Amino acid sequence: MGLAEYMIVSKPDGWTVLHDGTTQNDYDTKEAAFEAAVAAASLAIRQGHEVHVSVPGREAGNKTALGAKDPQIVP
């Protein structure tokens, strides 16, 4: 079997999962993108693939731990 690699990457307005050189969905948070990647990785494991999942640290994206935008303060 082959290698299934999932990379969480930041975009200007959120996050996405890079897999096989393409991205298909957009996510508001790094955590949501991670959860989607792990679900796909679980299926790949069942098929016998080696799996790699990578997630950038706080320094990526908008510099928050979960990659969420800071809430807007409405007066």
Tell me about this structure.
- This protein has a four-stranded mixed sheet with strand order 3-2-1-4, covered by helices on one side.
- It is 23% helix and 29% strand.
- The mean pLDDT is 87.
- The chain contains one helix and four strands, in the order E-E-E-H-E.
- It is of the alpha+beta class.
- The protein has a domain at 3-54.
Structural class: alpha+beta
Oligomeric form: single chain
Counting DSSP H or I runs of 4 or more residues, the number of helices is: 1
* Strand residue percentage: 25-35%
Largest sheet: 4 strands, mixed
Distance between the termini: 56 Å
Overall shape: it is: elongated
The residue ranges in which pLDDT falls below 50 over 5 or more consecutive positions are: none
Tell me the number of strands: 4
Give the radius of gyration. Answer: 14 Å
List the helices and strands and how they pair.
Elements: E1 3-11, E2 14-19, E3 26-27, H1 30-46, E4 50-54
Parallel strand pairs: 1-4
Antiparallel strand pairs: 1-2, 2-3
